[in-house]
Specification:
This protein has 223 residues and is an alpha+beta fold. It has helices at residues 2-42, 88-94, 195-202, 210-213, and strands spanning 50-59, 66-71, 77-80, 102-107, 121-125, 130-131, 134-135, 145-149, 155-163, 167-171, 181-191. Helix content is 27%, strand content 29%. β6 and β7 form a beta hairpin.
């Protein structure tokens, strides 16, 4: 009888021990969750943070402002801060903000995409747009934006302005060159990016205007 009582007591002690461990684990996970949520709530925009925000982008001055772009809660602008994905002046204006903070600022042309330059409008021979000896008239049309590369390997985007018998006239100014940009929006999320998020964003190709790439964009005569 004594042996049975002892075994039962040992059994109860074992279960109590495991119960204590289980409670300890639950409390630890709960505290860690609270800590992470608090950390997430207090997180500020800084280098290597994943940022999502909404914004309205208007150009122009005074009452003549025109809405050019809008990022919504459903389709926000998402990027990794400090990795060269955004204009430096844009990042300077949102650095240190937290989730829920609102922002409103303007960027001059010098801080944004530079001034419009006539030298960035170039004439290119039609033959460079040929496929199998035939001009690509499906893609190369007026107002189309075409990815290009200069002699130094710099990538850029140009807009087709005119197509003549011998040339394609392209504008390599950024579409917002010469404009003052007015941003207003809200920070909706800040978090540490996952490896998958970093890979997805860094693998996306990017294009830039001549002013961004420091390309010469010298006018080339048609043959």
């Amino acid at each position: 009888m004594l042996s049975i009582v002892c075994n039962k007591t040992d059994h109860d002690l074992t279960w109590n021990f495991f119960a204590l461990i289980f409670v300890f684990i639950i409390k630890t996970v709960h505290l860690q969750t609270i800590y992470l949520l608090k950390k997430q709530t207090n997180m500020r925009i800084e280098d290597e943070k994943m940022v999502s925000l909404t914004y309205d982008l208007n150009v122009g001055e005074g009452d003549e402002r025109e809405l050019m772009e809008r990022a919504t809660v459903e389709r926000p602008l998402t990027f990794i801060f400090g990795m060269g994905m955004m204009l430096d002046a844009f990042e300077d204006n949102i650095q240190g903000l937290q989730k829920g903070d609102k922002f409103s600022f303007s960027l001059t042309p010098d801080e944004a995409y530079g001034m419009f330059e006539e030298a960035h409008i170039v004439e290119l021979p039609k033959k460079i747009f040929e496929i199998d000896g035939k001009f690509d008239d499906e893609r190369i049309v007026v107002d189309a934006t075409i990815p290009m590369m200069d002699a130094n390997g710099n990538r850029m985007h140009g807009t087709v302005v005119e197509i003549t018998d011998d040339c394609v006239v392209m504008d390599f100014n950024h579409p917002l060159a010469g404009e003052t940009l007015h941003f207003a929006g809200e920070i909706i999320d800040i978090h540490e990016p996952t490896a998958e998020e970093i890979a997805a964003l860094t693998q996306q190709g990017c294009g830039c205007s001549c002013s961004d790439c420091d390309s010469d964009c010298e006018t080339k005569d048609c043959d």
